[in-house]
Write a structure and sequence with these properties.
By secondary structure, the chain is of the alpha+beta class. The chain is built from six helices and four strands, in the order ββαββααααα. Strands 2-1-3-4 form a four-stranded antiparallel beta sheet, with helices on one face. A hairpin with a 2-residue loop joins β1 and β2. α3 packs across α4. The radius of gyration is 19 Å and the shape is elongated. The structure holds adenosine-5'-triphosphate (ATP) and magnesium ion (MG). The site of adenosine-5'-triphosphate (ATP) has 11 residues, from β2 and α1.
């Protein structure tokens, strides 16, 4: 069985059929793209696979188990999650607290989540931003934080020069 298998998935919004009888397989290690014009149903399909929308009919299997009717957090705990075109994070939380939100998928312990979040920030060389409120840091640093760009050392240095918290 492939890592991800979709069998005859259909999603209707009332009288509008966004996805009709979609079937495909994705093997581990595959890198697959999905193309289609605006309104073709790409996001709807991803939302059904990730458990954000209930499918109208059809079946989804991930890693050998049926996940068709699971909630998004249950799908995520099994190892599949979707990202969004427009990122969403809380400006009311610090950088490390925002990372902790994701860590709570795997633990109920605040201490464990914080340790893991600190490790992740270190791995991405962002530990110096850890205690800043997200709303405090400039857009360039946020882009690095979200992983949308590689760290720009010039901007980073400028940010450090311009931010005095001592
Ligand atoms: N929550 C919803 N309720 C009702 N209709 C929806 C909903 N979400 C999407 N649709 C409709 O389903 C169809 C597919 O939309 P979808 O957003 O999946 O397309 P898309 O391929 O992701 O488009 P784009 O390229 O613009 O992102 C569209 O006609 C859209 O209006
Ligand atoms: Mg879309």
């Amino acid at each position: 069985m492939a890592l991800l298998e979709v069998h005859g998935l259909t999603k209707k919004f009332g009288g509008l059929t966004a996805n009709e009888d979609i079937s495909f397989k994705v093997n581990g290690g595959d890198l697959i793209g999905m193309l289609g014009p605006n309104g073709a149903g790409k996001s709807t399909l991803f939302n059904c696979l990730a458990g954000l929308y209930p499918a109208t009919s059809g079946h989804v299997f991930f890693d050998g188990h049926e996940i068709t009717d699971l909630k998004s957090y249950e799908v995520a705990r099994r190892g599949m999650a979707r990202t969004f075109q427009v990122y969403a994070a809380s400006g009311d939380l610090s950088v490390v607290e925002n990372v902790m939100v994701g860590c709570f998928m795997r633990t109920g312990s605040g201490f464990t989540a914080k340790d893991r979040a600190k490790d992740i920030l270190k791995e991405f060389k962002l530990q110096h931003l850890s205690d800043y409120m997200l709303s405090e840091i400039p857009v360039a640093a946020k882009a690095c934080y979200y992983g949308y760009c590689r760290r720009n050392r010039a901007e980073d240095a400028a940010f450090r020069r311009g931010s005095s918290r001592s």
